[in-house]
Amino acid sequence: MTEASIAMASSGREWALGLHRFVADHGGARVRVRVMHPEQALEEEFDVLVIDDITSFLSAHLVQQVQRRDRKVLGVFEEAAGEQRLRKLGVNAVMRADSDPEMFVATIVNLAAQLNVDEEFAELIADLHEDEPEPEESAAARIVAVAGAGGGVGATEVGVGIAADLSRRRLRVCLVDADDVAPSLAQRLDLPLHPNIRTAMDFLQHRNGSVADALHRHPGGFDVLPGLPNVRDWGDVRSGDAIDVISELAGTFDVVLVNISAMVEQSVSGPRGEGRFGVSRLVLGAADRVVLTSGPTPMAVGRVIEWLADTQRLIADLPLDVVVNRFEDGLFAKGEIEQEIREVIRPASLCFAPTDPKLAKAAWEGALAPASSFAKSIESVADQLTSARAPKTRRLRMRS
Q1: pTM to 2 decimals?
Q2: Which CATH code for domain 4-128?
């Protein structure tokens, strides 16, 4: 009989070392991979993910994604509150951290055995429905990550413009500030800093309120979830909780636009043992589509390529819409930039958004710019988000 393979989320608790030593000495299962980042849990091959209730990137979304890949999730807890959280997240089984290693292995083997039964049942169901037509996909991308390739390129303004355009199309839109480096959405739209994404995470985690209670209704017809009121609070935020908030919103709104930090590379761990830019990376992993904002220079295009290299494992199959913002350099420069982007990156769409005095004035007033040339250019991006989803064929092709 083949041993059950384990993906073990990085843990400082004693159970992790004890389980690793036990299976190395006695078998019954084997640790195939140590999971340091959430994308590893989705990319590696294994039977059971074993993860602490306090793991920073643990979320309902991650659990669902792992299970959709025909794998099981075993949650480990020390206190009753941890057990409750794990069950709410939908893990397949839970265990106390002080359980004997033999009990861990027995539970893991039992979960792995269920996979074989599930696969056989799935094959039977597939045979029964073989001739049925596939359901049509939603007309709009559900979660859209809005990022900038470098700071100061106007990604927040692009997100606001898309939200305003989609709301005019009678779509229910929520704009979320998940930028934990330079949150600015509340300031841009002249909204209160409280409640915010931290409030929404507390509501969801403690069940003492609704995520909807943390939203602000903008006169432009869309809802807004402001970001952290103080960027120094990033270390107290569990990125998995942020994703749970976004997933909750995706069940209510037609489109959830999530403004994330331009900093997305894997980095050193913070106070919770989580990478500094874990929220941005998890949002990209959860997104259906990505809107990436660039500056209007060759150097800025180079930053786009660097940004994509840092995120290739996360978004290699997602439709990518590139917005070249604050462009005013004429047809020749436009042709040069367009050729470079289309040859090297091959995005699903490419938009050139001009510098607009009306927009600058509106930003000072915390308002939307009426009938601006910028808003007109953003319509093409909104068209992409509301059309049938493009086939997942985009790849970053670096020039040799």
Answers
A1: 0.77
A2: 3.40.50.2300
